[in-house]
Amino acid sequence: MTVAAPAGVPPGLEHVMSISMGSSAAELPPAGHPGGHTPPPAGHPGGHTPSPAGHPGGHTPSPAGPARNIAVLAEHPATASTEPEPGWADEVRRLARERDALILAHNDQAPAIQDVADHVGDSLALSRLAAASSARVIVFAGVYFMAETAKILAPDRTVLIPDARAGCSLADAITAEQVREWKAAHPGAAVVAYVNTSAGVKAEADVCCTSANAVDIVAAIPAGREILFLPDQFLGAYVRRVTGRDDIHVWLGECHVHAGISPQELRRRAAEWADAELFIHPECGCSTAALWQAGTGDLPAERTRVLSTGGMLAAARQTKAPAVLVATETGMLHQLRRANPAVHWEAVNPRAVCPYMKMTTPAALLRSLREGVEEVRVDPATAARARQAVETMISVGRPSAVGE
């Protein structure tokens, strides 16, 4: 399927811009869709279809893939209460001590969840903290693939997730079976899997990557060897542009929240905030276009930065700008404001809220600690292969203290 590029789109960015702008490849969804994008239909040029029943990571959370996600969202809207009851934090900490539990919270969690956690960060950095900890129980406030990663790196611990129905549109964009089929079509290709994938998909990869080290990982692969990069099309396009490699095949998956942050919206907001710096996550629908726009003067090159979440935190501590526009999930603003309260932090898209992340409510976290639910299990053979892909990343590229 060939998609005509909108006028003014630079060569090589036609597909990225068509997805972001809402073309026939990925039509803008009806009002109320959680992230501003609908999943591509079966037969989409990226070659992927919705995940089949039976999630590759070792659990089956009812209907799989986008259908499951939509059903879960219907039951758990993003407006679900994230405000705790009085005394909640004290009870959470008491139960954590009693259970010898370490509470890990992803950057996209609600502020109350972040504030009560022992550690806040990106999924891989948190999973590595889980492995280094002596705690018997790990409670991961995030989405399911993140808790799986913690179990992969800490197989001897009990890993709990407060709501196992918390899925991820990006992780659900590809299954282990689809990776095997893709590999068969490209014999000898190196498979680079973003850490935002299921255990089953990681097990099929040669090496994992984060958004912070994806360029380093790809650059370390010998020239002339094909690369299958999955599952995020925007991160893949960014890596292809930065490395200059034309032998990278990119899977057309996306995080529906990041994909909904468009180049047009970024340009409009930058014009409104003339003195603001721009922090842009490479998963965003605007990220690759932003590099081009900065090069042509449509965005201020000296103030436009494409950064991982950890990179954003590091830059936040150093910036002297009066304001920063942030293109990522809005939960990240809580950590940025804590890192540098003198700066005015503003979301490029205030609607960029991941409803799956917000399924970890104060009540769900409390229940998880009280009842020891919901336990995450990964098949040992799958975990061993997935662990090898993560360890290869750490040996080849920059370990992620500044990961996703």
- The shape, in one word, is globular
Query: Strand order of the main beta sheet, please?
Result: 2-1-3-4
Q: What is the helix/strand order?
A: HHHEHEHEHEHEHEHEHEHHEHEHEHEHH
* Largest beta-sheet details: 4 strands, parallel
Structural class: alpha/beta
- Count of individual beta strands: 12
CATH topology of the domain at 261-347: Rossmann fold
- The second-level CATH architecture of the domain at 261-347 is 3-Layer(aba) Sandwich
- Name the CATH class of the domain at 261-347: Alpha Beta
**On the 0-100 scale, what is the average pLDDT?**
82
Sequence stretches where pLDDT stays below 50 over 5 or more residues: 1-68
Rg calculated over all Cα atoms: 20 Å
- Give the fraction of residues assigned to helices: 25-40%
CATH superfamily of the domain at 261-347: NadA-like
Q: How far is the N terminus from the C terminus?
A: 31 Å
